[in-house]
Amino acid sequence: MESPADSRQLAAQERAAARTVSLAGINTALWVVAALWLAFMVLPYAGPVRGYEVAFVLPGARDAGMKITEYIFAILGTLGMGVFTLATLVTKRTVFALVAWMFSAVAAFSSLLAVWLRQTRPSSFDGINLGIGVWLLSAAALIAVCAYSMSALRRNPEQAALAQARSEADDLDEVGRAQRALLDARRRSEEQLPEYLKDDRRRRAAERHRPHD
Questions:
Q1: Largest CA distance in the chain
Q2: Of 102, 100, 96, 94, nearest in space to 19 by CA
Q3: Looking at the domain assignment, is residue 204 inside a domain?
Q4: Structural domain containing residue 141
Q5: What is the DSSP string of 147-170?
Q6: For the segment 149-198, what is each residue's pLDDT rounded down to a tens digit?
Q7: pTM for this entry
Q8: d(Cα 7, Cα 14) in Å, to the nearest integer?
Q9: Residues 77, 136: one domain?
């Protein structure tokens, strides 16, 4: 029987295991996400404007008439698929994976708005159309959301094993242990009684109802 101290130790180990994320099965996908983000940074976002100019709100992006939705998409994409995805790959820390997942999810949604507003904007207004960088970052956002949903939002194998062990541990409180000790003492005292003092009514009733050959 495991003591409450053992159960508390298992709980502490489970919390420690939860600080790291298992990248098994998604490691390659996250490197693809990071590569797509790097490509977005150097390739055209719209017209001659590069992705890094939009992500860092540089004068070139402002001169091209970028809208707030496009800035939000580029900044969130840089944080989610760039900074925090690389941090997750290097450190395997759960907190970085969760932050990357949140930024990537919002970036995936904002990409729809950014693309829709840019596509519905009259090209005669500025003559600037979408570049390949937009589509690369949009693809990176979708891949990142799927990958993180498969791993960062689930328990890693070590955490799951510790949780199972803790659930199977006998974690009785003081009252429960006192009740168990009382029942054990009563059982032992009954076993020590003489035969004529033992309450054997159940045994005799069972013998009466037992079929005879």
A1: 108
A2: 94
A3: yes
A4: 24-155
A5: HHHHHTTS--HHHHHHHHHHHHS-
A6: 887 666 655 555 655 555 555 554 555 556 667 777 776 766 665 655 55
A7: 0.67
A8: 10
A9: yes
